[in-house]
Design brief:
With 309 residues, the protein is an alpha+beta fold. It has three domains: 11-192, Jelly Rolls, CATH 2.60.120.10; 204-247, Arc Repressor Mutant, subunit A (Orthogonal Bundle), CATH 1.10.10; 252-308, Homeodomain-like (Arc Repressor Mutant, subunit A), CATH 1.10.10. It is 45% helix and 24% strand. Strand 6 and strand 7 form a beta hairpin.
Length: 309
């Protein structure tokens, strides 16, 4: 499960955009919190960094992403100029910040801070806005506000990245949609034309097509678009309809299938664990081992030994 999605329509400028996100972090003195502190897909990047206090103003590059963060330490006082507008705020741990793409941004703050942040592609947000019937969505820059849904989604991404060293494509895709919808409906000035109706529940035929795709390509990096395409639905309809039918989101379901197939391989053969990992779609043995431990409660080698004893 590679942490870079190569199948999405927004991937054409991904490398340049990701470089700009890293440059932005570096310009403000960001230092990785752990070994794995940055990961990206074609629509979303996530980071977890520490920053020293900025006694003097620092101008950071404009971003092609919408920036959303959660402050993990503090409190601290921030002074900023966003698009030329001066902003001052006292930021508490757990509070968030949103900055629209393309804003000039100049910063100063009085204390060291630790931030979990995401960079959401502007064209992806626009595509979600079009789907849900928002004709014009203008991001409202905000500093020092509380939003439990945003916080949980960002921290889930950061936790996935730091624990497993990467983030699965499906997890990235789902998080991107959750964040986009939350931003659109809670943090945008918008013109609502219509709201998408209920997506219903997947039919048995649609579920069979999704299962066939997964079983045929379990060793591949399967995206949310792949799953939705098998069901003949848009990705936006698919997530809701799938969860209504199966009772869990696609990412969790797919991880479960990979682990169950891994158990079969561990029992039925003496295949090396690194080969088992590859056959069920993991990009490394260490990633596979961490996910297996998280799901099963023991490492693959220990599970195989217990199962065969």
């Amino acid at each position: 499960m590679a942490n870079l999605a190569n199948h999405h329509q927004y991937s054409r400028d991904t490398d340049a955009d990701i470089s700009s996100a890293k440059d932005w972090i570096c310009s403000l003195g960001g230092r990785p919190v752990r070994t794995h502190s940055f990961a990206a897909s074609s629509v979303l990047a996530v980071g977890h960094f520490r920053f020293e206090g900025l006694a003097e103003e620092v101008a950071a590059p404009e971003l092609p992403f919408h920036y959303i963060s959660v402050t993990l330490s503090g409190p601290l006082r921030i002074e900023a100029r966003l698009g030329g507008e001066k902003i001052k705020a006292r930021v508490l741990p757990g509070q968030s910040m949103i900055i629209a793409a393309g804003r000039s941004n100049v910063w100063r703050w009085d204390q060291p801070t630790e931030e979990a942040h995401v960079f959401l592609r502007a064209d992806f947000l626009k595509s979600v806005a079009n789907f849900v019937g928002i004709g014009c969505a203008e991001i409202s820059d905000r500093i020092a506000f509380s939003d439990t849904s945003l916080r949980h989604t960002i921290l889930a991404l950061a936790d996935e990245m730091t624990r497993f060293g990467s983030v699965s494509t499906v997890f990235f895709d789902m998080a991107a949609e959750l964040l986009a919808r939350r931003v659109l409906f809670r943090h945008c000035q918008r013109d609502l034309k219509r709201l998408a109706g209920s997506s219903g529940v997947l039919t048995a035929k649609q579920l069979r097509r999704v299962l066939t795709l997964v079983h045929d390509r379990l060793e591949d990096d399967i995206t949310l678009d792949d799953l939705a395409g098998a069901a003949g639905l848009s990705r936006f309809h698919f997530v809701r309809a799938f969860k209504a039918a199966v009772g869990k989101p696609p990412h969790r379901w797919l991880v479960g299938l990979r682990i169950e197939r891994a158990k079969e391989l561990l029992i039925d053969s003496d295949t090396p664990i690194i080969d088992v990992a590859a056959q069920v779609g993991f990009d490394s043995q260490s990633h596979f081992g961490q996910v297996f431990l998280d799901q099963v409660g023991m490492c693959p080698r220990e599970w195989r030994r217990n199962a065969l004893s």
